[in-house]
Each structure stands twice: as C-alpha cells, then as structure tokens.
Amino acid sequence: MKKRILSCLLALTLALGLWTPAWAAPSAVSESEAMQAVNALGIMVGDKNGNFNLTRTVTRAEFVTMAVKATPGGANVGQAAYSPYPDVPRSHWAAGYIAAGIRANLVTGYLDGTFRPGSQITLAEGATIALKLLGYTSADFAGAYPTGQMAKYHDLKLDRGVTVTSPSAVLTRRDAMYLFYNLLSAPAKDSAQPYITSLGHTLNAAGQVDLVSLVNGSMEGPIVADGSWQSSLPFSARQATVYRNGAQVKLDGVQKQDLVYWNESMKTIWAYSDKITGRLQSVSPSVSQPTSLTLAGHTYSIETSGAAYALSDMGTFKEGDTVTLLLGRTGGVAAVVAPNAREVTRCGIITAVSKDGYSDGSGGTYTDDTITFWATDGQSYTYQWRSNYFKVGDLVRAEAGEDGELKLTRLSPTRLNGKVSADGTRLGNYEFAPDVEILDTYEGKAVKIYADRLAGMTLQDGMVQYYTLDGQGHIDRMVLKEATGDAYTYGILTDINNQSAGMFIQVTYTMFLEGQYVSYVSQNKDFNVTKTGPFYLKGTPSDPKEFCLLNRVPAGAKIVDNTTLAYGNEIYLFADNVIVYEHVDGRYIQSTLARVQDEGLQLTFWYDRAPSAGGRIRMVLAE
Questions:
Q1: Are β-strands 603-607 and 551-552 bridged in parallel, bridged antiparallel, or unpaired?
Q2: Is the peptide bond before 222 cis (omega within 30 degrees of 0)?
Q3: In this structure, are residues 601 and 594 in contact, taking their beta carbons and an 8 Å threshold?
Q4: Would you tell me the crossing angle of helices 60-69 and 95-103 to the nearest 10 degrees?
Q5: Quick one: which of 116, 2, 134, 21 has its CA closest to 61?
Q6: Phi, psi dihedrals of residue 152, rounded to the nearest 5°
Q7: 607: exposed, middle or buried (C-beta count within 10 Å: 0-12, 13-18, 19+)?
Q8: Inter-residue contact 527 to 563 (CB < 8 Å)
C-alpha cells in the first residue's frame, strides 16, 4: 500500500509541477525517462519490434525527421509533393520531412546540390539544428562555424547525457535522444519559455519534462472496446504494449465495453473498465447542451461529444432512464450505454436511508426512498428505491435487472476466518484477485483498503462480513468490520470535566478533531476514560460509542523512512493518513513529518494496537 501511496504522490507532484520563469538547467535524467519523453512526443520511435537501437548511428534523413517531428504539428507531415533534392526523390521515405525541414530553415543541402540523406550526422550539425528550433540563426554567432554554435550548445546545457564531444563526431541514437530531450527544457531565444511549451506541454518544478502531463496530453481516444474496435487504431494492436487499469496485460485482456486510449508513437494502449449503473437523475445545465449529469448521487462531467449527444434531447437516453456510464481515465463520462442485465455493478453496505425528491422527466418532482451505501470500490453511492425495505447496516448488491431497471438485493453475510499471508496475497486457503476490492467499515463510515494492508493479520470471527469469489476461485470483493481501525476517527482528548455526583452522571469531554475543538456532554454514561491524550473515537463526536487512548511508543524510537519507525527489534508502520501536530503555545497546529524532522522538534509517536495485529502509528506530536 505504501508503494501505491508513494507512486500516487509522485504522479501528483509531476502533474501539479509548475515551470518557474527563471530558467534553470534540469538535473540529469535516466535513459528510460528521456526515451519515454521523446517517444511520447513522437520525436523518436522504435523499430517494428519496439527496439530503439540506441547504439546505432543516426543519418541526416533520420535526424531531420526527428527535428521536424519536434516542431508544432510536425507529426502531420505527409508525402512530399516534389523531390527536394536529386538524391532525395519524392518516393524517398523521408522526402516529406526533408522538404518540411528546408521550409522551416532547419537544414540545407551541400554546395554540390545534394542532401546526402544516408550520411551520418555530426554533433555540430545536430546541435545547429537544435539551436534553430530554439530560434537562433547564423546571425547570432560570430566567428567560424561551428565555434559559436557549440558554445551556445554547451551554455544551454544541451550536452547533458550526450557522449560525444568533438563537433565532427558522429551522433548515435542515444546522443540524439538526449539532445532532443534537453531541447525540451531549454529556453527559446525570443520568449525565454522552455521549448516544450510550444508543443503544448510543461516542465515540472525541477525543470524537467513533466512525464505524467506529457503522456496524458499525448493520448488519443477514447473508443469503446466493442466489435471491430482494433481497426480504429492507427497501428496494429497486436504490436502494442497493453495496460488495463494500470496493469500490463495481453491484448485479449481488454474486455468488451472497456474504454481504450492509445499513443501511436509509443505503440501503447491503455484500457479502463470503470463503469456505474443507475437511474439518470438530472442533466446539466440543459438537455440541449449537457456538460454534466447526476446519477446515483454523484455528479459526473461529460468528457466526450459522443456521451454529450447520447444524453442530449437528440440522443437516446432521458432523465429517469437506467443507464450505464463508461467512465474515462479522469473520471468523466466518455460513453453511455444501456445496462447489461447480467452485470453486477456494485456491492457494499448501507450507511443511510432517507426520502429525497426526484425529477419525473416532465418538469415535475416526486418523493421516493433513497439509500446511501459504501461500495467495495471505496466510493459512496446514492440510489433511489421504491420500498422501505432496507436499513442501515444491510449488505446490498446493485445491478441492472432484466428490464433495465436498477435492482437492489439484500445480501446474506458470508463469514470467513483465517490468517493473511505475510505478503498480503491470500487469506487462509483463498488467494486475493489482483484487483480485489476491500472495504473496512464501522458505524456508517467506511474506507477502502488494499490487500497488503492486511499482511500478517489474523481475521477473526465477525471481521469478514461478506466476500465473493471470481471465476478462478479468488477473493475479488470483501467487506470487513473493524478489522484495521482505519475507519475510526483519530484526535486528541484535551479535557475531561467530570461533574458526576452519586447516581447522577455528567461528564464533558473536549476533543481536538480534524483541526477544531468539539465537546460532548454525557449525562447517562461514563466512558471510563480518566486521562487525556491522543485517542481514537468509535462513533461520531455527537454520538460517541467509545473513547480509546492510543499507546505511546517508548522514547528512543527512530524513524527509518517515511513508512517505518523502529524501536529495538519492534517495527511500527505509519498509517497512510498519519496525523502530525505541533504543540505550540497550548495550541495544536497540523504539520507534516518532514517539517517536524527538519525543525529538530521533540517527537512522540502514538499507535493503536500491536503491529502484529495490524496496528499503525496514528499520530505524531511535536514539541
């Protein structure tokens, strides 16, 4: 789980990275990162087998083709309309790119009227073309060629990762890859903006290519995987690298009604299977120009014209219909289809029952029963229901019925006991499916967890409320109750004012929860807590069920990394949402682990249960 969290944080850092106006040379990057960047932009592609052949030398025709592809719109160059040089006939594979390079003043031929497309390109020639892409001309350089060009090449740090140093040395494909990668972060002559901005992309705060943004922006699609979907791709799907929901799969791993995105130069396909079925409650701002919709209590943006048309007054679906939304990789609605009667869409536990108003599709409204439940995917959903049949705590399944109507079914508990393996891949005799969905619940609150969160734990009677097996006999969904403690509320019990007398009980508990102080006055129950300090709350602040003080790790514990604390032979893991407070002038201020470490503050660590029972460091106090 920690690896997932760190990966998500890295992706978020990349995605939110901003370029700073004062240009600074980027730090060195790995060969893999540079390759992904130039490949995603289509500047450099592999052969038919996907090999980049980085040790091979580069011809003039190949380098000019890369340079043209590195210009805005350069990937759209077509067949040449004429023969640009006697030795570059119109039929030459690179004739169109060479002609485009000539028009853009990136390259010229030799004095004898030839271009010599098969000749190897030198460092001086490659550097000069890169400088021309940045807006430099021969007028910007004094002295004999290529002295001025090479000085600027080094000054702009275009040489990072390039192995050859002599201007007359021949470039390899690896050298060309680094030269174009460095070009992306170099400042253009006239605007001082990094060159990559001319291609519609950005750098991150470190001055490096924002790979997440770049690949996102270079994706095409989506299309729905149905029928002859592979013929819609501009390359053979059988030669592509395929991912489904983030995991690499074979081509036949893409399932019907998956949403498919692709990048032609990377020869990569990404498929996503997220979908939701329910009654279409509303379309906004109007059915003539829909941009969002509300279904099952959630509002979704509409991200494709096809989905907008299907939900418009000219399309197939209307308010009140039961539909299945195919959700794109950013969570928006990419397609709308009729629900599959055999498709189970969600299962989980009911957390609220109410009555709400709904549109009747004709401008009026009516009131109907509504249930809210947490599903095993970790999301809360709201469904309309026409019978007061369910209650809070019921296990339910939501699926499309034979008539297309949403069907809600109460599920009977399915119990399971056993020990989870140390690597978090199995429970007792059952393996977890690779995409297993697990929900831990308590008193109307639920959190999604991953299988490795349960590693080494023993799940005892009542902890597993419900589970299902897939076609391979693996656990694919599981609803737990109080197994991890992740669904509790954690804070600091700051004051206990006991005014009880005789048979009369009145105790005021003051708590610091989620950045604010709240109080609860108990007049009929003593929670048997006599000390203040870090604690967890079962229930809610207005209706507590139990106060439980946290345990303090003995003094002398050492932080191993951002996930682990060590004391002697005992290892404690930090909770994914560990709370860090600084205690300053009697006030608690939310902070971060990195900050309190950097400030050299005195730290105390508080955990809920033994590590062997799945315990975690829930709070860090700094003074």
A1: antiparallel
A2: yes
A3: no
A4: 60
A5: 116
A6: -70, -35
A7: buried
A8: no
Residues 427-468 have pLDDT tens digits of: 999 999 988 999 999 877 888 999 999 999 999 888 999 999
Q: Tens digit of pLDDT for each residue in 308-335?
A: 999 999 998 988 888 889 998 888 999 9
Residues sharing a CB contact under 8 Å with residue 463, sequence separation 6 or more, in sequence order: 417, 480, 481, 482, 483
SS3 content of the chain, % helix, strand, coil (to 5): 20, 35, 45
Helix (H, G, I), strand (E, B) or coil at 234: coil
| Cα 151 from Cα 274, distance rounded (Å) | 53
DSSP state of 139: G
Lowest mean pLDDT among 71-80, 191-200, 222-231: 71-80
| C-beta of residue 621 within 8 angstroms of C-beta of residue 602 | no
Q: For residue 7, which of 247, 278, 279, 348 has the smallest C-alpha distance? A: 247
Q: Which residues pair with residue 606 across a beta bridge?
A: 552, 619
Q: What token pair was written down for 596?
A: 């309190």
Place of tokens 């929860």: 513
Tokens of 298: 């959630």
Amino acid letter for position 477 = R
Please write the tens of the pLDDT for every residue from 536-560. 998 888 889 899 999 999 999 999 8
Q: How far apart are CA 610 and CA 23, in angstroms?
A: 50
Alpha helices in 186-299 (DSSP H): 211-218
Task: Dump the DSSP string for 151-215.
Answer: HHHHHTTTTTT----STTSBPBHHHHHHHHHHHHHSBPTTT-SBGGGGGT--B-TTSSB-HHHHH
Which residue spans within 360-506 are E strands per DSSP?
A: 365-375, 380-385, 395-400, 406-411, 418-419, 426-427, 430-442, 445-449, 458-459, 464-469, 475-481, 489-498
